[in-house]
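Supplementary Methods. Inverse-folding protocol.

Structures were first reduced to a discrete structure-token string of length 370. This string, shown here, constituted the complete conditioning input.
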């Protein structure tokens, strides 16, 4: 452990207890040695440092201490991205924050609970692992990965790039996450990385690489018995097929669902519309209209479907245009990008029909739509 940091802890503990140096070092070492310890310049018998810490009630400095193993286990949970378990573990072992591993406890706790970075003056005491967590708290996972090349930091770098719609950069970092996680043996991060890669390739409209990534992710999810993730992957694959115009394949998935959600019924209706399956379209539309507690946005989307079902000349209907405009604004402001992408083809049809070509072209360019 960093001797300068131990000296800092001793000085801080002594000052908190309002002890003079001569009283703290009595029976342990000379006054001059304590002064060297506190300034991080002592290179002698480390048992002196341990005894000073123990006198101040700061445990854990001894080699192979129980607190050392607790802290290492906490880091192992951190780097495999097992954050709920880590939060519970730290809550159950508050003694770590009263030991020489207090800084580790605070760093990990702040990451979990979106806290602030530690004061910059503490960075001079940090080792590479601690400094990497500090960089993460500064929302700089790329610097964290340079300091301590863990898969977790590549994953957060990829997430930042994906949220900023920098999909090529996200692809690179997710691939790096998978590679490093496989070396670390972190199967959960391997699953997250492959799932995210599939999602990234979907945004790049690369159906072949999306499927390849999702196939690997589904095998890992099966090994972990993670049915939730496997189910989400299948849902997202089918949803992307709608964007790619592969309606038959997507419809097969949604049609075979047991107890579909409102969103899934809506997608069934849209697919039936695209495939001109009037009876299926009508059935899905009526299921939506008979569903209690639709959100305001879901009601508007259902109303648009009804316009299109009932009136072949719906594009000339001002009420349809008004409803579609309101849907677009709601989806743009309050929903994830994926929801808007599935809505945009019909909205672009409206813009094209009403001679709003410039607006339509800007949307196509912004969302990389064909």
């Amino acid at each position: 452990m960093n001797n300068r940091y131990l000296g800092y802890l001793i000085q801080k503990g002594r000052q908190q207890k309002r002890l003079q140096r001569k009283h703290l070092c009595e029976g342990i070492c000379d006054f001059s040695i304590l002064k060297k310890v506190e300034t991080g310049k002592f290179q002698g018998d480390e048992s002196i440092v341990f005894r000073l810490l123990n006198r101040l009630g700061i445990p854990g400095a001894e080699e192979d201490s129980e607190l050392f193993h607790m802290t290492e286990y906490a880091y192992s949970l951190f780097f495999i991205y097992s954050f709920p378990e880590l939060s519970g573990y730290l809550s159950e072992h508050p003694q770590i924050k009263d030991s020489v591993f207090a800084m580790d406890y605070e760093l990990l706790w702040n990451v979990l609970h979106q806290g602030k970075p530690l004061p910059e003056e503490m960075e001079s005491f940090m080792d590479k692992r601690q400094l990497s967590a500090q960089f993460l708290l500064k929302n700089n996972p790329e610097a964290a990965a340079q300091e301590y090349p863990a898969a977790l930091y590549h994953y957060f770098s990829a997430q930042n790039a994906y949220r900023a719609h920098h999909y090529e950069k996200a692809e690179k970092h997710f691939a790096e996450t998978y590679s490093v996680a496989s070396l670390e043996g972190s199967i959960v991060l391997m699953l997250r990385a492959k799932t995210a890669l599939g999602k990234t390739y979907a945004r790049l409209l690369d159906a072949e690489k999306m499927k390849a990534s999702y196939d690997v992710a589904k095998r890992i999810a099966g090994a972990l018995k993670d049915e939730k993730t496997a189910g989400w992957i299948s849902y997202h694959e089918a949803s992307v097929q709608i964007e790619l115009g592969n309606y038959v394949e997507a419809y097969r998935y949604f049609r075979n669902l047991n107890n579909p959600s409102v969103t899934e019924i809506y997608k069934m209706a849209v697919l039936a519309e695209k495939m001109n399956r009037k009876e299926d379209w009508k059935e899905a539309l009526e299921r939506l209209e008979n569903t209690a507690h639709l959100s305001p946005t879901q009601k508007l989307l259902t109303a648009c479907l009804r316009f299109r079902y009932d009136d072949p000349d719906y594009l000339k209907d001002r009420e349809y245009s008004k409803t579609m405009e309101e849907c677009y604004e709601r989806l743009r402001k309050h929903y994830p990008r994926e929801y808007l992408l599935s809505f945009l083809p019909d909205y672009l049809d409206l813009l094209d029909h009403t001679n709003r070509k410039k607006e339509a072209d800007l949307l196509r360019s912004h969302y990389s739509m064909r």
